[in-house]
Known about the structure:
It is a single chain. This protein is an alpha/beta fold. It is about 45% helix and about 15% strand. It has a single domain (about 5-170), classed as Rossmann fold, CATH 3.40.50. The longest helix is centred in the last third of the chain and has 18 residues, at about 155-170. The structure holds adenosine-5'-diphosphate and 6-phosphogluconic acid (6PG).
Amino acid sequence: MTQHPLLVVMGVSGSGKSTVGAAIAQRLQVAFADADDFHPPENIAKMASGRPLDDDDRRPWLETLGDWLAEHEPTGAVLSCSALKRSYRDLLHSRTHGLQLLHLSGTPEVIEARLAGRAGHFMPASLLRSQFTALEPLASDEPGTTIDVDQDIDAIVDHYLASTMARSLLT
Length: 171
Ligand SMILES: Nc1ncnc2c1ncn2[C@@H]1O[C@H](COP(=O)(O)OP(=O)(O)O)[C@@H](O)[C@H]1O
Ligand SMILES: O=C(O)[C@H](O)[C@@H](O)[C@H](O)[C@H](O)COP(=O)(O)O
């Protein structure tokens, strides 16, 4: 692990990005942000009305997120962000150095059950199918780790921290 890790926790809605991202940031003692809090009101209204975002809706949001990450390079940070497509992740990389990714991966069944149990969020569970359609899992040339979300939160965090520690010992 680099001294000041810069990490995006990615995945579809309900995969646990906010929960796991905040827990990793706490363990690493670095800043945390949730990309949901950077959506303009139009994006929130669109999702809340049951319509998925498209590339044009997401571009300015991703640019803002890339700038947030770049600002936090000196101290390290964790950002939970869907980052569903390779092109979105490439945009974040283009504004940063040394960005790592953690993909929280799960079956539609497991994640649907999580969304059903989550209250008070603007994102309707009906959009989950479109999230899986858009999702492009990490490719082998992308710097990151994929972890199955069908385990408890502490296990996911421990697995991630152990895997990055092991990788840093090998480099
Ligand atoms: N590993 C897990 N095991 C059980 N419940 C989880 C796990 N990860 C997240 N949750 C719960 O699932 C719901 C969705 O998690 P959340 O962090 O909001 O996902 P996202 O930010 O990806 O939409 C929340 O109610 C959260 O408490
Ligand atoms: O790119 C998108 O379509 C959105 O970012 C989406 O993926 C995200 O999931 C929503 O903002 C809901 O927020 P949660 O992921 O917290 O459900």
